[in-house]
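User: Before I run my own analysis I want an independent prediction to cross-check against. Here's the chain; please return only the structure tokens and, at the end, one sentence I can use as a sanity check.
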Amino acid sequence: MHRAGRVWFCLWLCLLGLAACSDSTDGPFRNYTETGDLADIREHGVLRLLAPRFDAEEEFVWEGVPTSEFRREAEALAESLGLQPRWVYADDFAELSVMLNAGQADLIVTHYSRTDWRRERLSFCTPLAVVREVLVLPADRVGMSVADLGPLIIAAPRGTAYLETARNLARRHDNVEVDRVSGELSEDELLRGIMHGQYDAVIMDEPLFKALSIDYPELRAGPVVQPRRAIAWAVRKSSPDLREAVNRYIVAHRIKASQQDHESRDWPAILNSGVLRVITSNNPASYFMWRGELMGFDYDLIRDFAQRYDLRLSMIVRDSPARMLAALENGEGDVIAASMSVTPARRGKGWHYSEPYLEVREQIVGPASASPFEDLSELAGRKVTVAAGSAFVETLRALQNDGIGVEIEVRENVSSEILMDRVAKGELDLTMADSHLVAMEQGYRDDLKVLWTLRQPRQIAWGVRENQPQLRHQLNDYIKRVRDGQLYRATFDRYFLAEPARASHSAERVEPGKPISPYDDLVREHALKHGFDWLMITAQMYQESHFDPLTRSFSGAEGLMQVMPLTARQLGYQNLTDPAEGIGAGVAYLDWLEGRFPARLDLAEKTYFGLAAYNAGFGHVEDARRLAQRLGKDPDRWFGNVEEAMALLSHPRYARQARYGYVRGQETVQYVRDIRARYLGYLSATEKQ
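Assistant: Structure tokens:
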């Protein structure tokens, strides 16, 4: 429930048939009926977001987040799907499921409690939160159980989860009576009803009452009447693809947000944090996902640099030079490692560089059937397509200034790899690419040809801010020491010279539209059943078994998700070497573990704690949370807090004090880090650039 109210002008438009009950910055929206899944929704180009009308009327803070933030998140979800968000409103909660199933909207977006009655009619997405419902009473009646409160009339608005809870209380307690009040009443009206003696109590989400209680000092939160109530968005049961897309967005949004730490840092602060934040681009030279491993020439080098100082990497992927520079300037990352050319124009825009670690030449690339140029003047009248923000734009314009009549086509959101592929297929005339990238492409395909190589070499370097002199010094020192060494030569050969490796990297590289494992469909099915993002389960599955269903650990764990046979049987699964059974058991076990942690945990933190418990056991993670609290750290946050306590539990001094004793805590710390890094890698690899 939220504050009630009406948008009379919108309702008037609805009654006239001019628009649906919706708001939009682009004018009135004429609604339609659609009960299909995501593909059908895409036909309309719109994602219709359904909420109670009073959600749009007045904002309050719920679980520390303003309601408007959830509205913005839903709109961002629509935009991430390439759809235009449009809001549709219901008069009260009871109408939400009716309107959704009638095809008047596509997604319920509000603080919507998951109840048994609703689950029979709707499919709920990944919970945004899990809350407790409390009985709100006059201050002088708090401190007693429900049975000891005497005759009790509980006001429960129609269409809400509170009505279900109130009815359950009435069935258990003879002294409880339920007053089914209007579903349009606001929380303020309900609380005032207690103060005016209209009824004795109401049921309310605990965080919601905390937010409102400052205005009602005469009222208190009494007994907890529903200890775990999931709050989630909902779709029609006929929309599993939309549900999967929403789950993906919610989990990815929370995981990405949990790693965001905007701070302009130099070397001392980086060392102190233990994390080097690297801004990069998803391409075959810099950073990509191969099977379940993070790879790339830039990635391998910057990882080696970080390991020398005991730093772990946090990778931030941006799809263009301009966005990478903006992320650096905003303090989202510490260094850009993305095979970036050093150019005067980029220096003029604020780029600052390390020492160069690679030298390349720019090449004009055409289809294999084309003849190489005898002279650069043959570019006259030809169209060369390059990516917006690339150094090639600068080069081609310089050629134009020199009198060569080349036509330049600049395209957004494309990479050199994509452009070379389109040239090979005859969709484009020519493109320009750096020589090392061209060599990678030609290593596994024979439909491209270099038509001309520019004589002036380009230097490749890492990007830093002007106010990072100490980081730049450390990077420069590293580059000078390794550039002529064995590690550098082996890394260079691996990516740019070894043809079998290049062909394998291309064939099995994770990309949009390509399968990640042979079990993608099974993972999707079980992840959707339990409200997980299937990419997170895939990242964990690779960690556990490298996609081998016959894997068996020294401790007896079996299958793709490495579940103990006894645990699997308790969950209803028998044959763990069967991929469907192995995945089903692992996902069910992870869901059970996550459910044992406090409801107050943020979704991202619950994910990290669940993974840690999967690896080390729930008891050891609880030991680590207790130890974290004793050490003055936050027991509800994994990274930088509980993970540090977890690592300490392998030391006798701390293990002796723990309820469950010794555990290889550092192994669990690395397990969670690796899965999160792989998950973020899968996300960046599967999102269309």
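Sanity check: The two ends are 40 Å apart (CA to CA).
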